[in-house]
Structures are given as C-alpha cells and as structure tokens.
Structures
1.
Amino acid sequence: MMPTLLQILLSEAILIAIGVFLLWKPDLVWKLEHFLDVKGGEPTDFYTGNVRLLGTLMLVGAIVFPILMLALND
C-alpha cells in the first residue's frame, strides 16, 4: 500500500520541523534529553555538532523522501 499525498506532505512537515529545531536549538535538545540526569551541565561541542548534523540529514531527507515516494508510485 503506497502512502497518499497527504501522508507524504505530513511527513515532510514533521521532518522539516524537527530538522530546523535540531539545527537551531541543539542546546535545548540536550536539556530536554538530560534534564533529570545532570544538574547545571552543558553539552559538548561534539554533541552539538552531531545534533546539527542530524538536523541537516533530516532536512536532506525531507527533500529526497518525496522524490523517492513519487518515483515508486509510478
């Protein structure tokens, strides 16, 4: 069963929103992940770099995903 256009657009919106959030606010992502584990800690540069890389990959996926879905649909 192939996804409908609405499902593809909804997944696109979700991927773009998460990707932009990861790119702009990696410190907030760290705080959301570790607010019960660490008191007064800060993320390392390695962590923030990896979170930004993940955000970039999600935005690239948001571009590639619909192209693949439309190509498989035909």
2.
Amino acid sequence: MRFRHPDGSTVHLAYCTNVHPAETLDGVLAQLRDHCEPVRRRLGRDRLGIGLWLAKDAARALVTDPAALRGLRCELERRGLEVVTLNGFPYEGFGAEEVKYRVYTPDWADPERLEHTAALARVLAGLLPEDVTEGSISTLPLAWRTAYDDERAETARTALRTLAERLDALEELTGRSIRVALEPESGCVVETTRDAIAPLTAVGHDRIGICVDTCHLATSFEDPGTALDDLARAGVPVVKSQLSAALHAEQPHLPEVREALAAFAERRFLHQTRTATAAGLRGTDDLDEALAGDALPDAGPWRSHFHVPLHAAPAAPLTSTLPVLTSALTRLVGGPHPLTRHLEVETYTWQALPPELRPRGRAQLADGIAAELTLARDLLTDLGLKELP
C-alpha cells in the first residue's frame, strides 16, 4: 500500500510474511498464492505491499539463479503484490515448533550473517518495482547479549562496514539503493534505540541505520519522542519501522492478571518481559520466568515481547501497547517530512496466541491481517497522508 505524504514523498506500508512459515522458494511462492493475494483482495486493493521474509535456502536459490528471481518478480506482479522491504532478522527455522534463542543466530560476528544479508540485498534490488529505487532490510541488533566480547564486537562492526561497501557497489551496478537496519530488541546487545547509537556511529555509514519496532520500543519502556530525538541528534537514520504492539499488564501483582499472562507463555517464541523501576529497567528472558515467584518486581506494569494483533487488544485485565505505536507513528510520518518511508506491520505470533484467540484456518488469518492493515491505513490517513491506488 502506498501513501502520499503532504511533502509529496511516497510512504510504503506492507505486512511481513514471517507469519507464514516457509524455508524454500516453493514455499514463498505458495505464500503469495495462499495468503498474500487473499489479503489484498480483502482490502479491495489492486496493489499490496509485503515485507518478504526469505530464509537462507530461499535467498540462496534466488541469488544464484537469475531465472528464479525473474520468476518471483513475475509472480509478485501477477498477484498484485510489491516488495520494497525484507525482514532479514530470522535466518532459518522461524516456523519451527520451538524458536526461542535460535532466532539470534548467526549473529553479526559470524561471516554467514554478512553473506546472507548481502544476498538479500541483491535479491531486493531485483524485486523493487520499476518506479521505486530505495529498498530496506531489517536485521538482528548485532547479537544476543551473551558471549559478546570486544573482539566479537569489532568483528561485527567490520562486517557492517563491509556490507555498506557492498551496498554502495550494488547501487552503482543496479541504480537501486538498499539500506540495512538494526532492529533493537530486549536481551540483545542493542536492546534500545539509545544502545544503537554508539555501534552505528562507529560504523559511520548512512546505509546502515535502525529499524524502530514499536513492540520492542514499548517492551523497553522507551518514550517514542525521546528515542527518535536521540537518533536524530546522533545522525542515525530510521531506515524502516515495524508497526507492532506488545502485551501490557498494568497490575502484575494481582493473581487474575498473572493467570491471564500465563495464557501467553508458550513454547515457540521468546517473550522477554520488562518492568520499569526506580533503579532502571528490570527483566527476564521469557514470560514464564517472570511469572515464576519473585523473579521480576511487580509493583509497576509489565510489558512482554509478544506481538499481539494491532486491531484486537487482549481482554481485560490485559491490554496492548497500541498507544506507543500511535505515538511513534505520529513522530515518524506526522511531521513536515517523514523520518522513514518504509512501514511494516509485523504480527508473526498469530498461531502462538492462546488457543481461543488463534485464527482457525487461512481465511481467518487473512481476515486478521487485513484488519491490522486497515487500522494502520486509518492511522496514516488521520495523520494527513493520502492513500494511493
């Protein structure tokens, strides 16, 4: 979906396909047919933006076979779909029964992360619509926080500088400008937007910036205005933003609240949980850890890294951090010029929701994704952006 900003620039809205498990190119093509096109039709649109997730095998198939890349591009056009952004965070196995810490490997100190991201950039350059010259790729925020010493930190910075050089060369070759965005996430080396400033300043290249995920922003209790002001002062570009909402519990000390939270503690994904205290942010790696005894102070609200559907907050006594999303979006695109032109709805946890909230089949999932995109569209038009055909 495209929108005209009052300054005349185009803002792109997509939804991320990491909600649909696929490890191979055939699986990606099936996603377009079974999920993406039905969402487009529900929205009554001739064109729908999708943020593709390409696992390592799918990416390698596309980057090594020009015919396969041309075939994917033709399939996108045939189904009324377009791609300006990729989710390069998960490497493989994101649809496995248990993902947890595996999603953070390989990290940026591993050469495979550089090679995978460079491959994604070449693929994206070949998928961009004819009238679009800028693409974006979100990636993990350097590494999970453990086993990350000064040597690995310097290796990661060197890899990012090498990537920037390759992206420069790619633009010279194709005329397409691809940028990569570190996506701060709780528990990682770069947990907050402020944590991103030092390493990105050290890399020192405007092709490497930040992806503001509004669920992650909220989980860390960051104020959107302060975070974006800090990035602007440091000269760190907001390459893209993922529109998502975290799980919020206002009174976690109450038994009924803990019981409600326990329904969201599941085995597939990691749900880092945080609370703000006078001494600073406190947290656990997962929601079940927070619920175990007194592992986490409960005098103030808890927020958990669980991407809940934007249009359907959990029932009381829980809610979502949608207000953080709306506040961030206002700052991102509601000013005289957009801070980023790539927006992506990223709710990948539909099948991890409590059983009674999960979609039953493809049709209900498509309905839910379309409802999220409708909400995002309404927020954008309320900010003065005009939806384009």
3.
Amino acid sequence: MSGVVVHAARVVVPMTAPPIADGAVAVRDGRILHVGDRTWVVDQLSANGVPFTERRWRGALLPGLVNAHTHLQYTGMASVGRGQYAGFEDWAAAFNTDYAQPHDWAAEAAAGARASLASGVTSVADVVTDIEAATALEDHGLGGIAYWEVMDWENAAWQEHGRDQVLGELARIPTAPGAGLSPHAPYSLEVAPLLELPDIVRQRGLRLHLHLGEAAFEGERTALEPVPGLDGVVGVGHGADWHLANVPSFRAMRALGFGASATSFVDRLGVLGPDCHIAHGVYMTAADRALLRARGTAVALCPRSNAVIGLDPPPVADYLREGSPIAIGTDSLSSSPSLDLMADVTALHRIARAQGYRGHDLHERLLAAATLGGAHAMGLAVGPDRTGHLAVGARADLAVFDVDARTVPDALAELVEDGSGRAVATIVRGRVRALDGAVVEPSTPHESRPSDRSSDPSPDPSSDHPSGRSPDLSSRPSSAHLEEPA
C-alpha cells in the first residue's frame, strides 16, 4: 500500500462519531482509510509498514459541506440577490427582468462551482433551468446531483408533448456525478405533470427535488365563504379531500375554495418520498412537517434567501424539536449574498435561538445538517460512494476551517456562530481543490506544496496553515422565472 496522506487537525468532526481533539483522517486513493486520534492513526499506519505523508491543518476538519439547494447558473445574477424585497412577487419581478437579459449560463454556473469549492462545499444539489449549465458539477469534480427543472406545464400540453420533451431533456443531463428532476413547485405545474414526473424519476432510479412551502400562498388556508356548486363536498375549505372535486391544479383547488396546503397537495399526488427532498419549507404547519417525516422527505433550509426575498424565517426550531431531517442550502446569488454555506448555518443558529430552541445540541445538529443532512437528502449518505461523514471507506471529501478555539465545544460554537469566510481548504476525493479561497484546478499538483509534511509528528498544527490567495466568493443562485399565485 502506498500514497497515503494523513490530514491532522486540532479538531476532527466525523458526524457519525463524537468529535475528536487532535484527530486525523488517513486517505488513500480518494477514500478514507482511518479516522481517529492522530496518534492512533499514525501508529496504525506505522505498525503496518504503510508509508505516508502528513498534512497538519490549523483549526477544524469536517466532512466536505453539502449545499442541498442552489442554482449555480444564476451566479451572474448577484445584483438581484443584493436587493431587499417585500415578498415573493416583488423579488420575482426583479428576477425575471435580469433573467431575460443575455447570460452565459455555462460560465456563470462554472463560477458558482468554483465559489462553492472555495467555501468548503464538496457536493451540491444544483437545479438546472438552462441546459448549458448542466455540466458544472462534473466539470469541476464536485459531487451531488444536477436536477433538471420542469415548470410551466399545463395538463393538455403535457399530455400532448410535454412528457416526451422532458424525457429528451433529461437524457442530456450528465449522469456524473448524478442526475434528477426538479418539478419546480406545486403552483407552476398542473396535476398531470406532477403525477407523472415522480414516475419518470423512479423508473430510472433517480432523485426528485422541488421548491415547497417557499411562498406564503402555499400554506394551509380555510375558505372565507361557501363555494357555489360544491355544497356538501367533504373537505371544502379546509380538509384534504379536494381530489373529489377533480381539480386540474393547485391554483384551481384554491380558486374553488379548498384550503389544503401545497404540502398535502403534492403528497396526495405521490410526489413525496425518501427519494425526494424539498427546498425552503417555510410555510409549513405541524401536520405538513409530520407528512414530510412520514414520507422520509428531508427539507433544505435556505434562511438567507428567505430574508432577501422578504419571507418569514423557516421554522427551524420546530423541525429540530420534532426530529425532522433537515439539510441546508444557499439558494442562488439571485436571492442571497453568497454561496458560503456556513453563513446559512450561522443564520439558522440565530433563528433557532430566537424561536426558543434551547437544546445544548444545536451546534452539532446544524453542522450535521450542513454535511450528513445534505448527503442524506440526496441519497448520498450510504452506498459505495458515500459522503457527508468521515468514516472508513467513505469518499475522502473534507473541509478545513480556521477556528482559534482549542477545545471541541468552543471550536464547534465558533464555527457555527461565526463560520462564514473561514474555509482554509477543500478536499474532494482526496485531492486538494481549494486553498484559502483559491481554487486548485484538478491538473495542478498539490502534493509537493510546502505545507505538505512527512510523518514527523513534531510540527505545531497551528503553524501549518497553508498560504494562498484571498477568497473570491462573488457568486450564488435561486429560483426561476416565477411569480407567486395571486
């Protein structure tokens, strides 16, 4: 055995095991070979006569971050994301104006991929609206899934030619690192496509991802007055039996006076499931959140995007108290200040405390949401190419963050409460892909950089911080030509 690199740090956070002070991760051929106390890892290799080099990092070593919801192609729309809006409709008007301008979607998605790497992200749930942007993950060696976005199909057009068109488009989405479909939202697709799209995905063993509970319109409502012609129909105004009225769409259901939430609507159509995760989940009742848990559907929370658009904060305290599976997404630069996922972790910490969450586990659970939670949401936490946690045999996707604290609790608190801009290095499949905000192209040899160390245990980890250029995180994405239903 040869080619082993030991990555050591003051704090190693495996996610599926307790954090380790003075820990290390041994990597060989893009896979994790050992995880544990640094002395133990080094002794294991030495006892078996395995040659290795050691890299001593200052700070905390985590699994690579998983951005569970973004649109990399909107990285060039940062001027929209720098605004502040009065709600979904107000933001959508600004978005649509910019979207209609000329864009090089491939170049903008590439910039988003580089910004993701620079901030410690190694896997991405990337929603793709224009086919030119579909190869960004593959081109930059990122893990995750490219989800082809499907929207604005009415029943008749879908049955006439929509299904065939989407099948043709799906065939153009690269299968590496992964492919899926994103039925945009329950109000932008009618019933026929919402019924068929999950079947198309499931027949191929792919994944689903949709926006849900993002707009206030999607929340549960009650009818204000009787609905003419529907007297006596069970569920009018509140219940879930809207399907008895044979409604053609979510909009039509609401026009008829049914108050069922968008979550119960798509659940009745069979969209939710363990092969599906949703984005936002802001306007959700306790019953809606229970539906997600019952179906095994995770939610990617995007708090900074919600704030820019002018929406309510997500009910993160409720999700945590109820044990709902959560992940974290940046959304896009069209609705958020950056692609730095740790900034959303910090925002969620602030929101959870403001909503009354007092658990002492908040730091650990939010870090887990940004890593293992995102991998779980996309089905990447298990199997031969698993990621999101540091365990033997898993893919060697790592992220290093510069924190000053020397105790484990203090390091986790510092990272969660003020982790933005602290990414020191991003390692994908065992290769260093970013150092201090500068992306290292796959063809660039990094093994010979001065900060690589031999197996000599003597150097002080705090002195081993590799030098590099300052980060350029000027990119980030969100939704597509949308408007909130009136």
